[in-house]
Design brief:
about 0% strand; about 75% helix; 10 helices; membrane; Flagellar biosynthetic protein FliP
């Protein structure tokens, strides 16, 4: 009976068989330079996709937003709330909101014409990088640009448009770090005041062994809720990019 069942199962397996796709990867010589160019374009595209997270962090509003969120978390004194992954996700979607006009312009000027084969890859890059450079120029400091121009031993350009992108990006990152730290400093002030008030009250009551941070944490959370902190902070950070 076992042999009969095995034979029946084998027949059913053969009747339900389906073709399995076969993949061939060939490495050989090419007589056409166009094939090599297409291969290099694909390699370049894969490299860009691999570096996409770093590009999003370094050339968009994400850096300032995530710095402000982490300063807020430290100022409140909460250890695990909100989780770091949640803050990163919120910062990412706020970045999408802030960068939407810039990315729409990149899509209209570079991506769509490239997909429609109206322009080449090099022209698409030149047209696509301009809106991003324009965004970075709005928020980069002249002092940071001068720093990297001097370190690169470049002659001083006549205007910003002559600066190469590899100079603009690190200067923009430094400017965003500075702005994020400035906002973080002002975030700490009201919460430090709460800590000082709670510490003074505990000392006046003779409760010196009780950690002030333990008592002040609920009051800081209450203060943050009463002033509608999330709305205030997110609105302020987003409006800072409209200047």
């Amino acid at each position: 009976m076992f042999v009969f069942s095995s034979g029946l199962f084998a027949q059913q397996t053969q009747s339900l068989s389906f073709p399995i796709p076969k993949i061939n990867v060939d490495v050989g010589t090419s007589q056409n330079g166009k094939d090599v160019a297409v291969t290099l374009q694909i390699l370049l595209l894969m490299t860009i996709l691999a570096l996409a997270p770093s590009i999003i962090i370094m050339t968009t509003s994400y850096l300032r937003i995530i710095i402000v969120f982490h300063f807020l978390k430290s100022a409140l004194g909460t250890q695990q709330m909100p989780p770091g992954q949640l803050l990163a996700g919120v910062a990412l979607f706020i970045t999408f909101f802030v960068m939407a006009p810039t990315w729409n312009k990149v899509n209209q000027d570079a991506l769509k014409p490239l997909l429609d084969e109206k322009i080449g890859v090099e022209e698409a890059y030149n047209k696509g990088i301009e809106p991003i450079r324009e965004f970075m120029f709005k928020h980069v400091r002249d002092e940071d640009l001068e720093l990297f121009v001097s370190m690169a031993n470049m002659t001083r350009p006549n205007n910003r448009n002559e600066l190469p992108t590899y100079i603009v990006v690190p200067a923009f990152v430094l400017s965003e770090l500075r702005t994020g730290f400035i906002i973080g400093f002002f975030l700490f002030i009201p919460f430090i005041m709460v800590d000082l008030i709670i510490s003074s009250i505990l000392m006046s009551m003779g409760m010196m062994m009780l950690p002030p941070m333990l008592i002040s944490l609920p009051f800081k959370i209450l203060l943050f809720i009463l002033v509608d902190g999330w709305n205030l902070i997110v609105g302020s950070v987003v409006r800072s990019f409209a200047q």
